[in-house]
């Protein structure tokens, strides 16, 4: 079972998400929070697999709550799925920077929400690459002045570097395997080594690093 905590300051939204997710055979909702502080407390008490986190909440917002949750010992496997309105939230970049594994638009369909929770729970890539890629590129472009590659990037092999670039482009392991003409198992091995060498917890952080370091340039083709 995938254990989920839902954090949103709107009671009706929380109830709707809880009813939808709780109706799934492989998902159980173990708590609901009305603000970030309560979300942190619930995450510590319930140890869920996924926290569905709104960004804009009174008191402690979703960004700070995400940072505090993921900074706790023993929370390495927990994943945070951030909810955003996209058009007005300029905080998505910050949410990813503090460790969120992906995000979902608040106008997503029921099927998309359920799928997103499952994708994040199994530790897969950022959600909706066509949206997240656009956001990451835009915010990275706004925030970067003179990108400096972290020294650890130099420890990557040529193939690991190539895999990192393709991850930053939103490609799945299967798509990377097809592009490089290797097995998916081989890609998974390269991905694991990239995470270990760069001290990353998941693909979301890998994407952030690739853009912030200048390894991938916004708008540049991956071909």
From TrEMBL:
Record PTM 4-aspartylphosphate, positions in chain: 54
Domain Response regulatory, first and last residues per copy: 3-121
Domain of life: Bacteria
This protein's UniProt keywords: DNA-binding, Phosphoprotein, Transcription, Transcription regulation
Domain HTH luxR-type: start-end pairs: 149-214
Coiled-coil parts of chain: none
Transmembrane regions listed in the UniProt entry: none
Name of the protein in its database record: Response regulator transcription factor
Source organism: Actinocorallia longicatena
């Amino acid at each position: 079972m995938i254990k989920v905590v839902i954090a949103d300051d709107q009671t009706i939204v929380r109830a709707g998400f809880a009813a939808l997710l709780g109706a799934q055979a492989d998902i159980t909702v173990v708590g609901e929070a009305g603000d970030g502080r309560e979300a942190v407390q619930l995450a510590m008490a319930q140890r869920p697999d996924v926290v569905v986190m709104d960004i804009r909440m009174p008191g402690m917002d979703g960004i700070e709550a995400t940072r505090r949750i993921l900074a706790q010992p023993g929370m390495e496997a927990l994943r945070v799925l951030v909810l955003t309105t996209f058009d007005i939230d300029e905080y998505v970049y910050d949410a990813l920077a503090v460790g969120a594994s992906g995000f979902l638009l608040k106008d997503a369909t029921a099927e998309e929400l359920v799928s997103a929770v499952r994708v994040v729970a199994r530790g897969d890539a950022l959600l909706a690459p066509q949206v997240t890629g656009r956001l990451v590129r835009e915010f990275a472009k706004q925030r970067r002045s003179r990108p400096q590659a972290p020294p650890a990037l130099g420890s990557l092999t040529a193939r690991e570097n190539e895999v990192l670039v393709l991850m930053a482009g939103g490609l799945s392991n299967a798509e990377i395997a097809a592009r490089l003409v290797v097995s998916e198992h081989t890609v998974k091995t390269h991905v694991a080594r990239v995470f270990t060498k760069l001290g990353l917890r998941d693909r979301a952080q890998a994407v952030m690093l690739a853009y912030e370091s200048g390894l991938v340039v916004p708008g540049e083709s991956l071909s």
